[in-house]
Design goal:
Length: 244
């Protein structure tokens, strides 16, 4: 029996990268998983690979109607919701002078608004169980400075997590944030960033970039009953970067 036996989870932005890693580990630990993403081709392919306990739903995480549809699909298919992993996120490699208002609003909607919407509608379903775990993927840039837009929203996710944790605690719903450092995902392998990241890795105390599975294990812990007394907290997976 796995750590998530018979639990039902929604994971956003799960067609690739960290989200796909979370989904694979959750299935290995016997969860029923609803994976969502804007990329229907990759999401459907992953769901097929993971088997009958996995369902893919195409979702724009910034759409309130899409969130209602995802929650209803989950309840119809599996009868309940135990876990939400707000994983979807984007970043732009642009300076303050270069970033446009449209860029900024897009980051806000995907990184921040989606977490609010997901938490709001997931909590309604979880209240029926009298328990639940919401894991919000922030970043080490939710603790220290980084790119404009990305840093702002990831700090907001951290703050929202604490506020939501306090409001939902008496319903038995836990809310925590995870703060990854530099992780080997498609996001950091864009354009010429790979060489930059390789050089940057030398400054990481553990001297390497993390694999997505290392973050997934932290997410699994928080999603499971092993973390039954943890809520409103941030869990850092950054190889020691923010400890310097």
């Amino acid at each position: 029996m796995g750590k998530l036996d018979q639990k039902v989870a929604i994971i956003t932005g799960a067609s690739q990268g960290m989200g796909a890693s979370h989904a694979k580990l959750f299935v290995e630990e016997d969860a029923h998983v609803v994976i969502t993403d804007i990329n229907a081709d990759k999401g459907t392919q992953l769901a097929n690979e993971l088997g009958h306990d996995t369902v893919f739903v195409k979702q724009d995480v910034a759409s309130e109607n899409d969130w209602k549809h995802v929650i209803q699909t989950t309840l119809t298919k599996f009868g309940k919701l135990d876990i939400l992993v707000n994983n979807a996120g984007i970043s732009f490699n642009k300076s303050l002078e270069e970033i446009t208002t449209d860029d900024y609003l897009k980051i806000f909607k995907i990184n921040q608004l989606s977490v609010f919407l997901g938490t709001k509608y997931a909590a309604e379903a979880m209240k029926q169980n009298g328990s639940g775990s919401i894991v919000n993927i922030s970043s080490m840039n939710g603790l220290v400075g980084g790119a404009v837009g990305y840093t702002d929203t990831k700090f907001a996710v951290r703050g929202f997590t604490k506020a939501a944790a306090l409001q939902l605690a008496h319903f038995g719903i836990r809310v925590n944030s995870v703060h990854p450092g530099v992780i080997s995902t498609p996001m950091i392998h864009q354009g010429d960033s790979e060489a930059v990241i390789k050089e940057f890795a030398k400054a990481i105390p553990l001297q390497r970039v993390a694999e997505p599975e290392e973050v997934s294990k932290m997410v699994l812990f928080l999603a499971s009953d092993d973390a039954s007394y943890s809520t409103g907290s941030e869990f850092v997976v950054d190889g020691g970067l923010t400890a310097q």
